Amino acid sequence: MAEIFKIAIIGSGPAGLSAAAHAAKKGLSHILLEKTDHLSDTIFRYQKGKHVMATPSVLVLRADAEFDAGKREKILDQWNRDVSAAGVKVQFNSDVKAITGEKGAFTIELKKGDPIQAENIILAVGTQGNPNLMRCDGGNLPHVQYQLDDPGEYTDEHIFVIGGGDAGIENAMGLIADAGQNNTVTLLNRGADFPTAKKPNVDGMMAARDAGRINILTESNTNLVEPGWITVETPQGSTRYKCDRIIARMGAAPPRAFVEAAGVAFASPDRTAFPTLTPTFESTTKPGIYVIGALAGYPLIKHCMNQGYDAVEFISGNTSLEAADEPLLKDKLKGLPGTRSVAEWLEFLRSHVEILNGLSPLQMREFLLDSEVRAYKPGDAIFTRNEQGSSLFGIASGSVKVEVDPTNPAITVPIGESSIFGEVGLISGRRRGATIRAADACICVEIPRMAALKLMSQVPESRETVNRITTERQVLQIFKSGLTPSDISEVLAGAQVMDVKPGEAIITEGDLSDDLYIIRSGSMIVEKTLAGRPVFISYVPAGSYSGEMAMMERSPRSTTVKAAIRSTVVKLPAEPFRELLKRKPELDKRMRSEMKARREINAFIESQQDKFAGAVDMYSSVANFLIKQGIGEATDVLLIDESLCIGCDNCEKACADSHDGLSRLNREAGTTFADIHVPTSCRHCEHPHCMSDCPPNAIRRGPDGEVFISDACIGCGNCQRACPYGVIQMDKPPPPKPSLMKWMLFGMGPGPGQPDYEWRKKAAAKQSSESPKLAIKCDMCSGKSGGPACVRACPTGAAIRVSPDAFLSVARIDRGAN
Amino acid sequence: MAQAGGQSGRVRQRTHEGFLRHKGFRWAFVATGLSVAAVGVYFFVALQLSEPPNGGSWIGYTLGTISAGLIVWLACLGIRKRAVSDGHYSLKAWVSAHVYLGLSLTVLATLHTGFQFGWNIHTLAYGLMMLVIASGGLGIWAYSVLPHRLSANRGEVTRRQMLDNVASLDAQLQEAAQPLDRACAAIVRHSIEDTEIGGGFWQRLTGNYSHCANKQALGSLRNLPDSGPDSEILAKIETLMTQKADALALARRQMRITALLEAWLFVHIPATFALLAALIAHIVSVFAYW
């Protein structure tokens, strides 16, 4: 019988090799199984010379292998040395087929070779999986590849990307991103449509096809691959195309089936779900199997390596191991009153803040790493009205007061221990609606938006609590009028949170419904049929209500209200609300006066329709055009009045000169309607798509509402792919150029604006240091006292930055009528 | 609807008005006020003096100093436009002031001359100034009329795409011409190799491309005798060349409008430098021969 190892580690990526190195250092009997013939295949397959980053920078590395930011080669060399120095027993070319058995007696079956016996198993296989291979003749030729490391690597090639999923589309779009590379890219898809890809990806690709930058072959299959050629079977017949490179992205077999077969449960049936982890280190629902690294949901190298170390410590019996983050947490909690230890603080916060009740101690640790705990003295402002902020606060002890009336700070509403506040900013992405001060000495935990969203998705109880409180608060905030939670409890009892798709109507003109709606996130447009056509009446941003006319007057709906973008609304039943109005004459008066103002706008547009039908049509069609361009989710967008733009590109030059020499806007690109041009430039979305998957959490909102990318960017490109408007580019700043005066007087350097490619290449060659390509986008000239440079530098006033609610107002009708 | 936004107290311009209408014609009013005041004072003073108040009188010196200061300041727009600083400034406001104050110079400087002209450096400086202002006037016309044409011409096509379109049609021509005999291939090669998209500034400005190689090639192609087996290929090439002619026309129209938008600057800027030189000579000579 072969040796029974104490630990078998499957996968030799950063997580696996760290675990193996530590096991070796501790003298535990172990084996490291690797599918390929080299360590860390994922990093190995990075493009040559790629700069690998070490984030999060605050996290201490605790491992028996070293890791520091640097080139791929340097890191791989280091790991190879560390692994052999530690005396790790590695078995290459060992593709694991199945895991059977129980803790203490697992059997690992390999595709080739004898099975391996182990007491414990650490699974560190990552999420890369096995790509599906090309099956046709010639599919094994060297110019067929299954991944694309750097789209910038290829120039002047005929490239076929096979597969219409997100990976394929993203690869194809990456290859055509820089027209200077002069690649002829064709995407081949088996079906007629692209059902598995994200809509923005498909839209972007279709736009590129319409612009002639990419060819798309649908309902097509590869018949034959030959060097330099590809033969494709299309509905019209078989055609042979020139082809220098094939990138096959036909999906990958996720390791889920394999992991589940070993007895490990997953958190949800979702395709992207991770295995469920128990509170103690990275152990799973199957005793004796530990999941670490990317497979456990931690894609960053440092996390991976620390987890490898921790899991081995735990298996070797060290159950009292202090986590690597202990010093960080200690530091975080240092300034707080009292003498609690880290563990005591964690328990205190967990038990005292309602939304944290459902967390495990391990989740609590990770959660606190992202969050801040602060003590406030009575009267301290925690945040102020109109401040831009997207974090959520939980009250662990004490209480706070909300200044609900901006004109009179003496009017306050209390919020007590264990509750939360700041949740409206979290959900709607808009500015803070009120100033909140500590009512007495209190301790609050501030949870950044990403951590809060993660919390809500992982712990259902937290989500329900946040939703309940949010609705209550939003109703109170929108209707003000001195309402208290007890006043609206009946209204809220029937409240219903609804997701609305873009273009879907929540209210239809002429209907007899009478519910009131609150727009929680997204935005709505109001339309009315005039002279047989729908006319845009107004734009309703998140944090407003709609539908009050029918509710108050029991009349049929006078307008249609539909979603401009994907939105969340809260439907409040009419009857309890009418009861509330009877009890609260102040609220009744307030709503009637707002209703009157809205009526006047409707009446104004109707009257203009009679006199200036053309102006109203124009107003309506411009509004619809802008909504179609995604302005409905923008907070601040750059528009160019084409009746004033002389095409001098001074906006682009100013942008480049105020941002390390790289312009973040493309004036010419983008769409135009009725002299209004929407250039390719960031709109600072209310719910930024780019923020959705940023591993180092580098994308944030600044004090003016600008969405910006901080220095923590690791250059992964997720945001670039996530942005449906194509405003993020991956680039490295060019070397500094000679000053303006040197250019003007002596002709030195490339002059104002983004230096051309040739100059950059030459100047960069003189510099020795290597700098990685990072994500670059508009930051609204954050920190510059003069505001956005593009607008300041426009000589004719063609470039304007607007917020949609201000721009889409009836004031435009007057402009049109004049 | 100018509004200050956010917590940082940064300047945020939200106004939507062109440089001529900037802040409700603020600089038009300032320039008109300045001119009216100068005219008023001039004729009031003229009544008191025996001879017309020329550059040597106190009012002449005052007007001359103001005018010279204005000229130097107006010329600084060239630097302001290119120096992107972090603090608040609005290039639109600068251009607005540049236009109206520049126009007011026609009044201020004319009064400064006391209507005394001659064949000398002083009148040369005045003449150059009027040339600069007149070319600037063309600029105002160009900026108010051409942007619309510029935008209407390109639609949603960028300059880069226009050039790429031509390149892509060239590639298709190349591909299609492979089976052709030498004579026909020469025609296609003429279109591919000898077509100049833009040409010199004058050509771009006039939009005269009568010697366009693609046009010539298209002509020769149509004059070819009917050649049986190749006729299908030739028809395809004719289509491609016609498409190329359209793509060229679009790009050239864009270049023409851009050239028109810039043409006045080819007078405005050199004349400004000549004016600055003449102005220095004028001032130095006045003080040297006092």
Beta content of chain A comes to: 15-25%
Broad CATH class of the largest domain in chain A: Alpha Beta
CATH architecture name of the largest domain in chain A: 3-Layer(bba) Sandwich
Average of pLDDT of chain A:
84
Query: Which structural class matches the secondary elements of chain B?
Result: mainly alpha
**Helical residues, percent of chain B:** over 70%
**Largest interface, by Cβ-Cβ below 8 angstroms: which chains and how many residues each?**
A-B, 56 and 52 residues
Shape of chain B: elongated
SS elements, strand count of chain A: 43
Oligomer: heterodimer
The helix tally of chain A amounts to 25
Protein architecture, described:
The complex is a heterodimer of chains A (818) and B (290). Chain A has 818 residues and is an alpha+beta fold. Chain A contains 25 helices and 43 strands. In chain A, strands 1, 2, 5, 6, 7, 8 and 19 form a seven-stranded mixed beta sheet that branches. In chain A, strands 10-17-11-12-13 form a five-stranded parallel beta sheet, covered by helices on one side. The mean pLDDT of chain A is 84. By secondary structure, chain B is an all-alpha fold. Chain B is elongated and about 95 Å long.
Features:
heterodimer, A: 818 residues, alpha+beta, FAD/NAD(P)-binding domain, 5 domains, seven-stranded mixed sheet, five-stranded parallel sheet, 43 strands, 24% strand, B: 290 residues, mainly alpha, elongated, disordered N terminus
Describe how the helices and strands are arranged.
The complex is a heterodimer of chains A (818) and B (290).
Chain A: E1 4-10, H1 14-25, E2 30-33, H2 41-44, E3 51-52, E4 70-71, H3 72-86, E5 90-91, E6 96-102, E7 105-110, E8 116-123, E9 130-131, E10 144-145, E11 158-162, H4 166-176, E12 184-188, H5 199-210, E13 215-217, E14 221-226, E15 229-234, E16 237-242, E17 245-248, E18 252-253, H6 256-261, E19 289-291, H7 301-315, H8 326-333, H9 342-352, H10 361-370, E20 372-376, E21 381-383, E22 392-397, E23 400-403, E24 412-415, E25 420-421, H11 423-428, E26 435-438, E27 442-447, H12 449-458, H13 460-479, H14 489-493, E28 496-500, E29 505-507, E30 516-521, E31 523-530, E32 533-541, E33 545-546, H15 548-553, E34 560-563, E35 567-572, H16 574-583, H17 585-611, H18 613-628, E36 637-641, H19 650-657, E37 666-673, E38 676-680, E39 699-701, E40 707-709, H20 718-722, E41 729-731, H21 740-746, H22 757-766, E42 774-776, H23 789-792, E43 799-802, H24 804-807, H25 811-817
Parallel strand pairs in A: 1-2, 1-8, 2-5, 8-19, 10-17, 11-12, 11-17, 12-13
Antiparallel strand pairs in A: 3-4, 6-7, 7-8, 9-18, 14-15, 15-16, 20-27, 21-26, 22-25, 22-27, 23-24, 23-26, 28-35, 29-34, 30-33, 30-35, 31-32, 31-34, 36-38, 36-43, 37-38, 39-40, 41-42
Helix pairs in contact in A: 1-3, 1-7, 4-5, 12-13, 16-17, 17-18, 18-25
Chain B: H1 22-48, H2 58-75, H3 77-82, H4 91-113, H5 121-154, H6 159-176, H7 182-194, H8 201-206, H9 213-223, H10 231-263, H11 265-288
